[in-house]
C-alpha cells in the first residue's frame, strides 16, 4: 500500500481533468482526492496498491483529451484511512 501527493501543471483546468480522474481512480480501486488550485494546477493524493497507484499516475501524466500536462511532481505521502476517491473544492 502506498500514497502519493501529486501536483500537475499545464492546461489541466476546464477540460474535465478532475472528474475524469475520479472515474479512472475508482475503476483502478484507489482512494484519495483531486482538486483544482488557484494557480491553475491540479493537486491530488492517490492511495492503494503500488500497481493501481502507478496506473493512475500514468493516466495523470497524459490527462483527458483536451488537456496538456507539462509536468507532474510526485512525492510520497503518509497513508490515511480513506475508502473512496473524491473531487474536492478548489484550494
TrEMBL record:
The enzyme's first-digit EC class, named in words, is hydrolase
Q: Does the keyword Hydrolase apply?
A: yes
Keywords from the named record: Hydrolase
Recorded hits in InterPro entries, A to Z, give: Acylphosphatase (IPR020456), Acylphosphatase-like_dom (IPR001792), Acylphosphatase-like_dom_sf (IPR036046), Acylphosphatase_CS (IPR017968)
Q: Which residues form the Acylphosphatase-like domain?
A: 3-89
Q: Which residues form the active site?
A: 18, 36
Q: Which PROSITE patterns match?
A: ACYLPHOSPHATASE_2 (PS00151), ACYLPHOSPHATASE_3 (PS51160)
Which Pfam family would be a valid example here? Acylphosphatase
Catalytic activity line of the entry:
an acyl phosphate + H2O = a carboxylate + phosphate + H(+)
What is a GO molecular function of this protein?
A: acylphosphatase activity
Family membership, please give it: Belongs to the acylphosphatase family.
What name does the UniProt record give this protein?
acylphosphatase
Q: Upper taxonomic classification of the species?
A: Bacteria, Bacillati, Actinomycetota, Actinomycetes, Micrococcales
The primary gene name is yccX
